[in-house]
């Protein structure tokens, strides 16, 4: 459910951004046409509506509900103004239908119904003004009624189809999330049972200690992955923090590196092996940069250079490591850094 809502918010933000950019292209000729035809009120309404959308988009504190409400309201308001000022010769009907479509795609049933009612009220107002001959462009009353009825039919039909399709998609996403939680829970239980079996093998502790910290690494990696199932990416600094002792190791996250779920267990186990080898050199500092991980300590890494070559038998090959006396540079292929 959380992933579905986040994706919906992202899509709406993309839509709003597109409206602003493409609206700028349409706004200038529309403004020129309004000024040429002396439709000054319509020019002011277009300008205020466009500035409102720009403002709600760039304002960092604007929540999803505010952005959606503003977009639907501005679209309805511009549609009403264009319809009243230009009648059947303008795009007022299109603006009104767009408001209903946006509400149907991104809002709740209450907002969808409200937007449909608003379009009908606007058409009623337009019909009243047409009957009282207060409009510049008069059309037969029967035509107003026919347009209003067709708009209602289209609005209700599209809204129902969109609502039930999105609801079906949302239910499927929720079912997948529930299955993922169940699978994660079973994997976690199996890992805990595995760790317990290793701990019981006290007579073989030297041989089983590597398995123990590797099992803990996989368990920690899966816990982090469950916290971000919608992206499938895990932050490297958080992964290192889960694998290290906070009292003996510090982490400085500067590059925001992330590892994909497909490579997560491999990287987690390899890092765990590396940390085990470096445990005698604590305290350590891990610095996550743009494309590398810098490991520094208070003592030289030279004495353990031979031990680090043993990582050839681990999931972190030795070619990923650049071991110097003062620091170690770790480069893991496939890590991603947001730009």
Can you describe this structure in just a few lines?
The chain is an alpha+beta fold.
What would the keywords be for this entry?
single chain; 339 residues; alpha+beta; five-stranded mixed β-sheet; two-stranded antiparallel ribbon; 10 helices; 67% helix; elongated
Walk me through what this model shows.
The chain is of the alpha+beta class. It contains ten helices and seven strands. The protein has helices at 2-36, 40-58, 64-86, 92-106, 109-131, 141-200, 205-227, 236-243, 261-277, 305-308, and strands at 233-235, 249-253, 258-260, 284-288, 293-297, 321-323, 327-330.
Task: Please count the helical segments.
Answer: 10
Name the overall outline.
Answer: elongated
Residue share in β-strands: 5-15%
Radius of gyration: 31 Å
Query: Based on DSSP secondary structure assignment, what is the total number of beta strands?
Result: 7
Main sheet characteristics: 5 strands, mixed
What gap, in angstroms, lies between the N and C termini?
A: 28 Å
Order of helix and strand elements from N to C terminus? HHHHHHHEHEEHEEHEE
Q: What is the strand arrangement across the widest sheet? A: 2-4-5-7-6
In helices, the fraction of residues equals 55-70%
Low-confidence stretches: none
**Quaternary structure annotation:** single chain
């Amino acid at each position: 459910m959380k992933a579905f809502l986040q994706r919906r918010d992202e899509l709406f933000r993309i839509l709003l951004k597109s409206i602003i950019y493409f609206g700028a292209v349409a706004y200038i000729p529309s403004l020129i046409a309004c000024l040429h035809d002396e439709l000054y009120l319509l020019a002011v309404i277009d300008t205020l509506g466009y500035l409102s959308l720009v403002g709600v988009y760039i304002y960092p504190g604007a929540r999803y509900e505010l952005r959606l409400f503003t977009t639907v309201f501005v679209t309805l308001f511009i549609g009403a103004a264009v319809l009243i000022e230009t009648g059947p010769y303008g795009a007022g009907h299109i603006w009104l239908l767009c408001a209903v479509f946006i509400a149907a795609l991104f809002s709740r049933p209450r907002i969808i119904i409200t937007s449909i009612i608003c379009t009908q009220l606007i058409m009623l107002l337009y019909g009243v003004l047409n009957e009282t001959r207060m409009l510049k462009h008069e059309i037969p009353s029967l035509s107003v009624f026919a347009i209003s009825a067709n708009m209602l039919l289209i609005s209700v039909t599209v809204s129902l189809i969109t609502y039930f399709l999105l609801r079906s998609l949302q239910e499927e996403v929720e079912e997948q999330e529930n299955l993922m939680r169940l699978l994660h829970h079973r994997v976690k239980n199996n890992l805990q049972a595995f760790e317990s079996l290793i701990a019981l093998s006290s007579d073989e502790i030297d041989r089983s200690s590597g398995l123990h910290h590797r099992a803990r690494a996989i368990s920690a990696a899966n816990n982090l992955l469950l916290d971000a199932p919608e992206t499938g990416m895990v932050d490297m600094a958080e992964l290192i923090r889960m694998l290290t002792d906070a009292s003996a190791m510090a982490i400085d996250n500067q590059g925001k590196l992330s590892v994909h779920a497909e490579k997560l267990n491999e990287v987690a186990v390899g890092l765990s092996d590396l940390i085990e080898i470096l445990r005698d050199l604590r305290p350590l500092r891990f610095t996550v940069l743009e494309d590398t991980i810098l490991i520094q300590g208070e003592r030289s890494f030279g004495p353990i250079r031979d031990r680090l070559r043993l990582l050839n038998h681990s999931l972190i090959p030795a070619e990923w490591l650049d071991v110097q006396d003062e620091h170690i540079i770790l480069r893991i292929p496939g890590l991603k850094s947001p730009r």
